[in-house]
Fold this protein.
Amino acid sequence: LTFTSDPIPGATPRELELFLRGDQCRRLLLSAGGTRPVEVLPESPQLRSLWAAQTSSGFAEDLPDKVDEFLRTTTIVKFPGVNLTNTVINGFAVVENEKGTAECVSLLIAESRSTAGRKPIVWLFNRLTGDGRRPQEYSDPKARVVTRTSVVEAQDGALTFQIEVRFRVTVNFPRTLLRVLPASVDTIESRG
């Protein structure tokens, strides 16, 4: 997916590149425009290892071994009877793209989920999603997500921000859910 902003009037390429390299850009991207808090995490061997695992997976190309910063965000999703708290860690690096200009890259490296609510509903939710077996510590994310933000020139010469998102979601169905399906797994998979 690629998103392009409206033209940015009066901004110079140098000003926009400095913005991409700065903290404010990262915070705005991860905070959904300032709607949720973003926490800076100190670099650790565990975080470096998580970054290395994601960069070596082949999903996100041309990323450096060294990360500029690790950031954590938490989102709460409310379902009837259950609240799902999803905490993710992203690594950020500024790289030079093929045009030789700065590109701010965010890579999802870990996640942790927890559920709260009425016990029977939480139990059922965890059984159906497979989350009950997941440890509370950070684990390999179910989704692969890399976001690249850069400044591009529009056809009329105006400068715009471009955000390119690449993602892949892996869904593993727990055995409990597979037992209650109305058809065999092969039949369901063949139907898409």
Notes: The chain has a mean pLDDT of 84. Residues 95 and 103 are 5 Å apart (CA to CA). The radius of gyration is 20 Å. Residues 45-55 form the longest helix (11 residues).
